[in-house]
Amino acid sequence: MPTSVPQRDRPDQPWRSEGAPPPPAPKKKMPGGWGRLILTALIVYLITNLILSFFNDGDEPTVSYTEFSKQVTAGNVSKIYAKGDAIQGQLKNKAPVPSGEGSGDYTKFTTQRPTFADDDLWTQLTKQKVTVTAEPVVEHRSFLANLLISLAPMLLLVVLWLFIARRMSAGLGGGAGGMLGRKTPPKPVEMGPDGKRTTFEDVAGIDEVEGELNDVVDFLKNPDAYRAMGAKMPGGVLLAGPPGTGKTLLARAVAGEAGVPFFSASASEFIEMIVGVGASRVRELFAEARKVAPAIVFIDEIDTIGRARGGGSGMGGHDEREQTLNQILTEMDGFSGSEGVIVLAATNRSDVLDPALTRPGRFDRIVHVSPPDRGGREAILKIHTREIPLDPAVDLEQVARTTPGMTGAELANLANEAALLAVKRQQREVTQSDLSDALEKVQLGAERPLVMPYEERRRTAYHESGHALLGMLQPGADPVRKVTIVPRGRALGVTLSTPDSDKYAYTEEYLRGRIIGALGGMAAEQLVFDVITTGAENDLEQVTNIVRGMVGRWGMSEKIGPLSALPSDAQQAYGLSAAPGTLDTIAVEMRRIVDECYDTAARLLRENRDKLDALAQALLANETLEEEAAYRAAGIPRLSKAGA
Predict the structure, then answer these.
(1) How many CB atoms lie within 10 A of CB 173?
(2) From CA 390, how far away is CA 384, in angstroms rounded?
(3) What stretch of H or E contains 383?
(4) Residue 473 has what pLDDT?
(5) Between the CA of residue 14 and those of 2, 171, 187, 272, 347, what are the distances in Å?
(6) Mean pLDDT computed over 217-245
(7) Residue 367: is its pLDDT beyond 90?
(8) How far apart are CA 523 and CA 529, in angstroms?
(9) Which residues are catalytic?
(10) Taking the C-alpha atoms of 474, 475, 479 and 480 in order, what is their torsion angle to the nearest 10 degrees?
(11) Which value, to the nearest 10 degrees, does the dihedral of the CA atoms of residues 143, 145, 147, 152 take?
(12) What is the dihedral of CA 439, 440, 445, 451, to 10 degrees?
């Protein structure tokens, strides 16, 4: 399945794109102007020549002819070169420069033979065995070599100049464009590595959402038909839903199905510490999209910058977030001439978005992407197993039936885990057993090689038997699929119960049954061992969440009545929207419901103690019981298989 996304063209580019033609190469301009660079280079050239001249003078001093004759007589001259009266030479050993002619020592030298000299220089040279060479002793660099050496610092300066300018531009993003007096040039656009676009063939399980987005695809394919009727292109579509339901994949499929360029970015990538950078990046993104319109701009996790404004004063990143949001609002409003650019956005927190973002004209449609139903899960599994060799006996429909509530991402992970298990088992195909074991690993956690004492295993067996037995006895409860006392994840044992068919609304009776089943472990331990252990921690968390929703949100308490007294957002402080008196009443009602459910759980376990003992003994003997074996051990027939 083509899910790869093209790489960014540079690190500061906060979006990726596919399907757009590459823009023409921009004309590069020298930052700061050529005049300033040429002037600086000329100064560097002169300074370099001056330094080189100093070095040359220090290497080969000019000595007097008297000093030269003295060194010849002393036999300290190794070789000389003469051209006319000019003599160059080299000493055998260093000699101090005569006072008045310089300082330091010298080895190579130059001198001038006076025209009136009438000495026996050649005789002295022959006597001292001085070599008279045909080539200069002191090699002077040519004009070209001096020029190249002088230009080297200048070239280094040019490279450094360009490097610093580019780093400054990249480091500050588009927002630094105004500071440097230049705009970031357009970027070339690449396709995915496989050259394929994602289409609706790669999307399954969300047919109703696909139907909503087909309107956008049809508009992009046939804009003239809509314009003839006076219909305007929707400004934006907001995809809202839980994580892993395929919102990003849907956005890419819309662009691929319509055959238009697709620009994607995460909202958090626009935010920087420097105020104004995010807004500048938004302007640049929409400018790129407008160049190749019609196009689609996709912003993932838009709640990062799209939260409702207000509250505290704008400080630092908060002010930057608001400026970025304001720029997105402006671009979506068409004020900048963004016709032909449709904005798709994804979030799992649509309730916290700013009203100015979700009003008609901005995001004209809000499409809710929910977890798939049973048929959708089967279709998603078929897509994610296209590249996986499956055993002919594999029944994906049965897998889909046992995975209610799982999203597309979780199903993809399930298929991958099954493939990993098949590789570990050195198989050539993925079997039904691999899928079943992978599902257990995903839902229950990986097995732990933990050796427990017998008493601990026995208490765990009764704990899990309490959960399972109450699930079997409760009318309308989810059927028990598996009971195990093999430690998995953080749990010492697990009871897995899933419904026969997908549920979309829950009755008070069903929720009370879930509470009774969750309290069954604690009630069984207290009934058999007269103790309460920490093993019920996760059970009590589930009970608290369910009963809090029943009383404070779903109107299942007569004293509270049909009120939503508690916030649905688990991240908010508990009880923010309720008065203190209401909170006290909620606490009393929660306690009443839990006490009633616990009494029911304890009564049912006492009345069916023989079934509890039988189930616990079967667990101790086998460690894991599948659905049929668990019901057979408890001596209870399956009450219903509706929808199976």
Answers:
(1) 23
(2) 11
(3) helix 374-384
(4) 87
(5) 22, 13, 12, 11, 18
(6) 81
(7) no
(8) 10
(9) 464
(10) 20
(11) -170
(12) -160
Task: Kindly give the residue spans of alpha helices, DSSP state H, lying in 74-192.
Answer: 121-127, 143-172, 177-180
Distance CA 314, CA 634 (A): 63
Spatial contact of 448 and 623, defined as CB atoms under 8 Å apart: no
CB atoms near residue 347 (< 10 Å) = 23
Cα separation, 466 vs 522, in Å, equals 8
Q: Which residues contact 185 (CB under 8 A, 6 or more apart)?
A: 26, 28
β-bridge pairing 77-83 and 86-96: antiparallel
d(CA 640, CA 631): 13
Does pTM surpass 0.85? no
Q: Provide the phi-psi class of 266: left if phi over 0, else alpha when psi is between -120 and 50, else beta.
A: beta
Could you tell me the two tokens for 314? 């704008």
Contact 599, 519 (CB under 8 A): no
Write the pLDDT tens digit of every residue in 333-343. 764 444 678 88
From residue 568, alpha-carbon distances to 370, 426, 505, 562, 564 in Å are 17, 47, 16, 15, 9
CA distance 264 to 343: 10
Q: Is 129 left (phi over 0), alpha (psi -120 to 50) or beta?
A: left
Q: What number of other Cβ atoms are within 10 A of residue 628's Cβ?
A: 9
Q: Residues near 540 by Cβ (< 8 Å), separated by ≥ 6?
A: 518, 522
Q: What is the mean pLDDT of the chain?
A: 76
pLDDT for 593 equals 92
For residues 25 and 187, the answer to whether their CB atoms sit within 8 Å is no
- Helix intervals (H) in 428-453: 432-444
Q: Would you state the torsion angle of the CA atoms of residues 98, 103, 105, 107, taken in this order, to the nearest 10 degrees?
A: -70
**What are the φ and ψ backbone dihedral angles of 109, each rounded to 5 degrees?**
-155, 170
Query: Per-residue pLDDT for 83 more than 70?
Result: yes
Q: Which residues contact 9 (CB under 8 A, 6 or more apart)?
A: 187, 188, 189, 190
Q: Which amino acid is at 371?
A: P
pLDDT tens digits, residue range 232-244? 777 788 888 888 8
Cα dist from 278 to 131, 173, 230, 263, whole Å: 77, 9, 35, 16
As given in the structure block, the two tokens for residue 50 are 């001056």
pLDDT tier at 188 (50, 70, 90 boundaries)? Answer: very low
465 within 8 A of 627, measured Cβ to Cβ: no
Task: Give how far Cα 428 sits from Cα of 84, 423, 438, 439, Å.
Answer: 93, 8, 17, 20
Residue whose pair of structure tokens reads 């993925």 in the numeric block: 430
Give the pLDDT band (50/70/90) at residue 178: very low
Q: Which amino acid is at 60?
A: E
Over range 519-525, report the average pLDDT.
91
Angle of CA points 197, 202, 207, to nearest 5°: 125
- For 454, the token pair is 């017998």
